[in-house]
Amino acid sequence: MSRSPKTPAPQSADDSSQLASTSTGRGSLLVIFLTVFVDLLGFGMVLPIVPLYAKSFSEKYALEAWQTGLLIGALMSSFSLMQFLLVPFWGRLSDHYGRRPIILIGLAGATFFYALFGVATAMQSLTLMFVARIGAGIAGATIATAQAYIADSTTTKNRNKGMALIGAAFALGFTLGPTLGGVAILAGGAIHLSPWPGYAAGLFSGVALLLAIFCLPESLRPGSEKAHSKLFDREALAAALRIPTIGTLLLTSFLAVFSFGNFESTLSLQIDTMVQKQTSPETTPAFLASLLRFANWLGHESPDNVKLIVVLAVFAYLGLVLTIVQGFVVRRLAGKVPETTMAIIGSVLATVGFLILGLAAMRADFHLLLIAMAVEVSGFALVNPSLQSLISRRSDPAVQGGILGLAQSTSSLARILGPVFGNYLFSRSVGAPFWAAAVLMVLAVVMMFFTIGAKQDFTPETKAV
Fold first, then answer.
1. Who contacts 84 (Cβ-Cβ below 8 Å, separation ≥6)?
2. What is the DSSP letter of 283?
3. What is the pLDDT of residues 83-135, one digit of tens each?
4. Are 325 and 381 in contact (CB under 8 A)?
5. pLDDT under 70: residue ranges of the chain
6. CA distances from 327 to 116, 168, 225, 332, 334 (A)
7. Residue 463: exposed, middle, or buried by beta-carbon count in 10 A (0-12, 13-18, 19+)?
8. Which residues contact 392 (CB under 8 A, 6 or more apart)?
9. Do domains 1-228 and 233-465 have the same CATH topology?
10. CA 174-176-181 angle, 5° bins
11. SS3 category, 378
12. Helix (H, G, I), strand (E, B) or coil at 227
C-alpha cells in the first residue's frame, strides 16, 4: 500500500554488535511495534476514503470527469510525494539527533494532520484537505525511523525478525484500521461524508504519541553518526545499471508498484460505482448486505456514509488477505522456492487478478471483485519481497546501500505516478485502470524471464568493469 515499509540499508557486523549492546531490547521492540501499529490504524482508517471525499469535492465544483480523475490522483499522490522528498531528510536528522525525537515529531504531525483531515471534511474545504494530506506526508517519518530504531536494537543475525515487526504492524493496521473507520462512521451519526474517521485517526496517532513519550527509550548511542545515501544517487544508478539484471529488476519493481498503486487508488471509486448500481440484495455478497442492513438499522440513511462503510469493509478484507498471505504463505515459501520463481508466479497471479478486476468492473459484480482482489493481492505479496531480495543479492556490497536506496526511490515514484495515471483512466472507463495494470504486469513477467539464467548472488565476476 502507499505507506508500505521500505527495505533498510545494510549495516556492518561491528556496528550491529555495538548497537545491540545498548539498553534497548525486546521491551523496546514491543513498544516500537505497538507505536507503529497504533499509528497505522489511523492511516488505514483514512486512506480508503480519500478518493470518495475527493469525488464529493469534484461534484461540488462541477468538474468534468477527466478533471475529477486528476484531482483524485493528485490528492492520493500528494502524501507519497512528500514522503519521497522528505523521508531521507528525516533519516539524516535521526542520525544526528536520535530516533526517538524524530518518531515523536512524526506522531505529533500525524495526530494534527489526521484531525485536520476531519476538519476539512466537516468544512467541505478542498484546500484544507490538501494541506492535511501534504502535512501527513511531511510528518510521515514514523515507519522509516522505526526501521532505523530496530536496526539499532538488533544484531545482523536477528535483524530480519525485527524488521518483520514493521510488516506485521502494517498488515494488522491496514486490516483493523478500515474496520475501526467504519465504526467511527456508525458512531458519528448520519451526516454527509462523516469527518469522524479523520478525528478517530488523529486520536489513535495521539495515543501512539503518548505511548512513545512515556515508554520509548532512545536507541542510538551519542556520537554514533551514520552516513545516509543520497535520495537519488547518480553514481549508485550508474553502478546498478552496470551490474547484470539489476536494471531489469528495478524496472520490474517499478511496474509492479505502479500497477498496485493504480489499483489501490481506484478501488474505492470502483466500489462506490458498484454500490450505486446495486438493484437487489441478491447481487451483493452476504456480509456486505448484512453491513448495509446494520447501517440502515442504526439510522444511517446518508448514502454517502453507507458507501463509505462498504468501502472500509472491503479494504479490511483486502488487509486480511494480505496478512494471511504475507504471514503464512510467503514465510513458508521463503528459502524453499527461488525468488525469481516466486516473483514470476506472483506477477502471473497479479496479472490474472487485474484481468478479473476489469471484468468485475464492467459487470459491476461484487462477488467477482472480491475474488479478483484476493488473487491480485496474493500475487503482489509474492512479487514485492522477492524483487527486493533479488536486488539486494545481486548488488555489489560496496554500493548496496545506494542501490537499495535507489530501489526505494523507484518505488516511491511508482506510488506517486500510479494513482494519477489510474484515476485519469478511471474517469474514461471503470475497467481501464485494471486492464492497463494487467498489460504492465505482463511486461513485468516477460522482464523477469530475462533474469532466470543469471546468477542470483553477487560475485566479483558479476561486477561491471
1. 231, 409, 412, 413, 415, 416
2. G
3. 778 776 777 787 778 888 988 998 999 999 999 999 998 888 889 999 999 99
4. yes
5. 1-27, 88, 141, 155-164, 188-192, 221-244, 277-305, 392, 395-406, 452-465
6. 34, 8, 34, 9, 11
7. middle
8. 7, 10, 400, 404
9. yes
10. 95
11. helix
12. coil
Q: Which CATH fold would you assign to the domain 1-228? A: Growth Hormone; Chain: A; (1.20.1250)
Nearest C-alpha neighbor of 418 from the set 269, 232, 265: 265
Closest by Cα among 414, 425, 272, 442 to 355: 442
Burial class (CB in 10 A: 0-12, 13-18, 19+), 260: buried
Cell matching residue 322: 494480505
Distance, C-alpha 43 to centroid of its chain: 10
Q: Tell me the residue type at 65.
A: A
DSSP string, 133-186: HHHHHHT--HHHHHHHHHHHHS-TTTHHHHHHHHHHHHHHHHHHHHHHHHHHHH
Counting every residue written for the chain, the total comes to 465
CATH architecture of 233-465: Up-down Bundle (1.20)
Half-sphere exposure at residue 165, Cβ-oriented, CA atoms within 13 angstroms: 28
Residue-range domain boundaries for the chain:
1-228, 233-465
C-alpha cell at 56: 464529493
Phi then psi for residue 62, to 5 deg, are 55, 50
